[in-house]
Amino acid sequence: METLPDKLSIRDWARDDRPREKLMQHGAQTLSDAELIAILIRSGTTRESALDLAKKVLAAAGNDLHRLGRLGVADLTRFKGMGEAKAISIVAALELGRRRRAMEPAERELVASSAVAHELLRPLLGDLPHEEFWLLLMDRGNRLLDRCRVSRGGLHGTVADPKVIFKEALDRRASALVLGHNHPSGQLRPSEEDIALTRKLVEGGRLLEIAVQDHLIVTSGGYFSFADNGMM
């Protein structure tokens, strides 16, 4: 009679099927709930892989992450192969997810005009004694994903590197962005360098399918919008 092979552990699977490698190559969003939990568990038993154990734990919670989040360390360690360290990892990860949800606003800001962009940039730039360059990063629906500073300079200028700007956008999976920098002098008129940089970034954005929608110059007394003035 033929003997069936032992169950394969995750490290014995094809590389593309392993949760950790799959996350590295394709992103965390491509993994199932069980695969994400298997990464936290890290190892299974002689009879079950970490993924088998993760599926069992999820099934006991009705495949509901909210119900799973209500389980404590003592509840999780009742599963064979689930030691205290593994249980603590799962509880900690779910608690981080809960805190992240609590910090998110009910609805992200819709950046639909230069006035909205200015309201988001003015607290960051309006009263600075030196120049800084910031980005507003948006999704396809123009909802704000993040604000980030890409450079800090002196009284008369700052250097904004297109490579850094587009890296920030790509890292956050932004589909659109608004550029913003301040003129501590109060001068709202863009310089030739401002105009040239804006053109370069608009062209670079087209190649990467990231829409550079506007560039704002912010001062303590107002702002200048490249888009409103037909310069984009």
CATH superfamily membership of the largest domain: Cytidine Deaminase, domain 2
Instruction: Please identify the top-level CATH class of the largest domain.
Output: Alpha Beta
Uncertain spans, ≥5 residues at pLDDT below 50? 1-9
Query: Rough shape?
Result: elongated
Order of helical and strand elements: HHHHHHHEEHEHEE
Strand ordering within the main sheet: 2-1-3-4-5
Mean pLDDT, nearest integer?
A: 87
The proportion of strand residues reads: 15-25%
Which percent bin holds the helix content? 40-55%
The biggest beta sheet reads: 5 strands, mixed
Number of domains: 2
- Given helix and strand content, the structural type is alpha+beta
Please tell me how large the radius of gyration is.
Answer: 25 Å
- Note the gap between the termini: 75 Å
Supply the CATH architecture of the largest domain: 3-Layer(aba) Sandwich
Helix count, DSSP H or I runs of 4 or more residues: 9
**Topology-level CATH name of the largest domain:** Cytidine Deaminase, domain 2
Total count of strands: 5
Structural write-up:
With 232 residues, the chain is an alpha+beta fold. It has 2 domains: 10-103, DNA polymerase, domain 1; 114-225, Cytidine Deaminase, domain 2, CATH 3.40.140.10. It is 41% helix and 16% strand. It has 9 helices and 5 strands. The protein has a 5-stranded mixed sheet, with helices on both faces. The longest helix has 20 residues, at 84-103. It is elongated. The N and C termini lie far apart (75 Å).
